[in-house]
Structure to design on (779 residues):
């Protein structure tokens, strides 16, 4: 797929998501102007961009939807719940049409029938709609409006020098005119194109004069230039509008006379110019009112465009992150060398460089960060559809949508969340009558919350349904041989068994969930993002899924320690404090792996024993207190070196089975340090304690 | 003759194409073999127009050779098919 098509697909996706969000919001909170505006803009934009690619089916469909939305916006049609459902279907259908157009596939029978049916319905909603049988679905006919008065328009435009840098395809824009009506004349203006020796090939010099016979309005013609309005100079006027023609000729900056060109190309008879005594070469010093207004309009536009967003291929950002990562490693080497040479100047420069690299790193990482709410809003539609399908009533809310997370993580976490939401609705929330008899409100409550916590992002899915069937999970796990009958598992551990492969306790297999596959895949997907998931449940009160994800995937702030002969990195955000394991604590331990830290019991993990390290030469032993979620643990280590910008490098197959190590990093000395997987180490410790 | 070995000629290639055309312009004729090209954009068309005009003013020959149907269609749709030689039309 070429770059333009990719951008088109992204744009359509964005517009359709906005449309869906607006529809769902109006379904929940009632109709409002802002959301209606969003719907209209989405269809309008899709129609315009699809037209540039010549996707006639998309243009035709979007045009009808846009027309109806225009009537809704003008309050001539009321947006009822039924109509919102139709627009939701129209949104899905538009996506389908776009997918097929992009794949260059003809409409299959099913899509064609859906297309025809939806068009009929949309048209029947128009005020004063005609007999359904008279409705045609040919895109070119659809574009024709109702009044049938054809006008000959003169469209004149010149590309500004920077036009090509916009990436817009002017040829597609020109081609689009033939969809609007009959192009009577089209002439490229070449007089401004310099010679081969003088041309700057990346600057644009050309322009076009077009005569278009059409019954569409001025606004609809102007819309063709919607995405390039700042990068061209355009005039659109009726051919009999001599005043505008006068302006056009008078303001022309073409190298040759535009008047002569228009006459020689047969646009106008020379008598028209004689009557008005237009001389294109004489330009008045005082700009006329039209010009002033135009200039003012353009100034406003420019100011509005001072802040803009830019689409960048994510691989370019990944590349930048990799390069910054390599610089971090190289700088660590310089720093190490400076220490060895005891050179204060180099050491100082390396420190400054390190600070700057950290700023660059944060800046680059921030480019990738997006608010989760933008992506999570799509779940509203899914919840709405699933609830409708299973006959349940759900109040769904998203909390903390402004929380930022790496875009790639947001995309990859989407499927697991969707699966868990479906599970909550399908199995967690009871039927409305059952809820009522249990003394609960008829509407089930499902909340998707996101918040940052200790260097991680927490995503919670909470429902107020019936909770997980603990006994059934146990029975199934014992039957499947996952655990023994004489197990000593806590309730929480039992609930977390649902993440084991092949364990579904659903009594009925529905097309929404309950096939026994899924939750293990959910867990695997989350773990592939270096995240964790756990579940808690209270019978009769509902369940809570908690996903924890790292903020970033490439570079972290780490804390360098040593145990035995190996250096390790602990993610800095998880560290609460470092204390010396002195004789006082050693006496407390008395052979156990616990200490009393300010009146609370802190379990300890001896890294040297756990990873079978050699004895240390260090005189001092230390405890690094780490926290993950609600758990705390002390890690017994030998040396503490301090903060270290850690570039995460994946470890090979050999290390894949080593629990507790999530990756490696290269130190300035060229040594390798292993990065602790704190959640896994804690899990192991808790299992040992139990 | 300049042989283009690209499937698509666009703004990203237009500067190097310009250099090739400038070099060729020192000869008596500027001929471009387009047999491998399936798509061009307006920046390339504009450069060909510039070259064609410059050749005309210096009494040199300019020609696009072996232009395939996709490119012919693009040139026709933007009314720049005057760039095509008779053998291509």
């Amino acid at each position: 797929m070429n770059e333009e098509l990719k951008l088109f697909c992204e744009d359509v996706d964005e517009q359709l998501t906005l449309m869906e969000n607006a529809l769902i919001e109006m379904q929940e909170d009632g109709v409002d102007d802002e959301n209606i505006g969003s719907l209209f803009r989405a269809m309008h934009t899709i129609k315009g961009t699809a037209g540039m690619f010549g996707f006639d089916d998309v243009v035709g469909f979007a045009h009808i939807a846009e027309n109806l939305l225009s009537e809704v916006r003008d309050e001539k049609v009321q947006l009822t719940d039924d109509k919102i459902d139709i627009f939701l279907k129209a949104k899905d259908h538009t996506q389908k049409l776009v997918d097929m157009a992009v794949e260059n596939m003809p409409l299959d029978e099913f899509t064609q029938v859906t297309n025809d049916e939806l068009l009929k319905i949309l048209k029947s909603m128009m005020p004063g709609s005609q007999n359904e049988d008279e409705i045609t679905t040919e895109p070119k006919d659809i574009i024709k409006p109702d009044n049938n008065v054809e006008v000959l328009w003169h469209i004149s435009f010149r590309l500004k020098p920077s036009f090509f840098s916009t990436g817009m395809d002017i040829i597609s824009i020109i081609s689009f005119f033939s969809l609007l009506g009959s192009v009577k004349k089209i002439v490229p203006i070449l007089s401004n194109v310099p010679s081969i020796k003088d041309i700057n090939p990346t600057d644009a010099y050309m322009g076009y004069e077009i005569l278009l016979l059409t019954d569409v309005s001025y606004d609809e013609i102007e819309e063709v230039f919607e995405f390039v309005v700042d990068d061209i100079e355009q005039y659109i006027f009726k051919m009999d509008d001599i005043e505008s023609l006068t302006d056009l000729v008078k303001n022309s900056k073409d190298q040759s006379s535009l008047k002569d060109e228009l006459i020689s190309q047969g646009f106008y008879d020379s008598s028209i110019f004689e009557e008005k005594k237009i001389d294109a070469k004489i330009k008045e010093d005082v700009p006329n009112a039209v010009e002033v207004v135009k200039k003012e309009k353009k100034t406003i536009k420019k100011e509005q465009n001072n802040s803009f967003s830019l689409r960048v291929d994510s691989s370019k950002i990944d590349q930048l992150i990799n390069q910054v990562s390599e610089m971090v490693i190289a700088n660590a080497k310089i720093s190490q060398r400076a220490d060895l040479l005891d050179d204060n100047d180099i050491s100082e420069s390396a420190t400054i460089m390190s600070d700057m690299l950290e700023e660059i790193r944060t800046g680059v990482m921030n480019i990738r960060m997006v608010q989760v709410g933008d992506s999570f809003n799509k779940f509203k539609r899914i919840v709405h559809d699933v609830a409708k399908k299973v006959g349940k009533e759900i109040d769904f809310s998203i909390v903390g949508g402004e929380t930022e997370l790496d875009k790639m993580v947001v995309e990859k976490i989407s499927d697991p969340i969707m699966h868990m939401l479906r599970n909550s609705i399908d199995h967690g929330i009871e039927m409305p009558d059952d809820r009522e008899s249990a003394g609960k409100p008829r509407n089930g409550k499902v909340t998707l919350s996101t918040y940052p916590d200790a260097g991680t992002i927490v995503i919670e899915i909470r429902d107020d349904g019936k909770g997980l069937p603990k006994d059934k999970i146990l029975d199934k796990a014992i039957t499947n041989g996952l655990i023994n009958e004489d197990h000593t598992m806590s309730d929480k551990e039992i609930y977390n068994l649902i993440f084991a492969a092949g364990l579904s306790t659903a009594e009925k297999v529905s097309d929404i969930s309950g096939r026994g596959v899924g939750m293990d895949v959910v867990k695997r997907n989350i773990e592939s993002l270096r995240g964790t998931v756990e579940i808690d449940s209270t019978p009769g009160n509902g369940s809570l899924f908690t996903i924890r994800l790292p903020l970033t995937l490439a570079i972290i702030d780490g804390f360098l320690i040593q145990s035995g002969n190996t250096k390790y990195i602990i993610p800095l955000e998880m560290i609460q404090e470092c204390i010396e394991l002195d004789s006082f604590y050693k006496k407390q331990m008395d052979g156990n792996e616990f200490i009393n830290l300010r009146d609370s019991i802190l379990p300890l993990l001896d890294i040297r024993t756990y990873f079978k390290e050699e004895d240390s030469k260090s005189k001092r032993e230390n405890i690094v207190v780490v926290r993950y979620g609600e758990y705390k643990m002390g890690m017994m280590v030998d040396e503490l070196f301090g903060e270290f910008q850690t570039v995460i490098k994946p470890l090979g197959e050999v290390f894949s089975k080593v629990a507790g190590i999530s990756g490696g990093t290269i130190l300035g000395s060229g040594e390798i340090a292993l990065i602790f997987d704190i959640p896994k180490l804690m899990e192991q410790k808790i299992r040992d304690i139990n | 003759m300049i042989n283009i070995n690209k499937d698509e000629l666009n703004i990203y290639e237009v500067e190097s194409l310009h250099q090739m055309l400038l070099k060729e312009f020192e000869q008596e004729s500027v001929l471009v073999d387009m047999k491998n090209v399936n798509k061009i954009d307006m920046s390339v068309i504009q450069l060909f127009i510039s070259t064609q005009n410059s050749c005309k003013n210096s009494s040199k020959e300019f020609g696009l050779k072996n232009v395939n149907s996709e490119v012919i269609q693009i040139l026709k749709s933007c009314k720049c098919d005057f760039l095509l030689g008779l053998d291509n039309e």
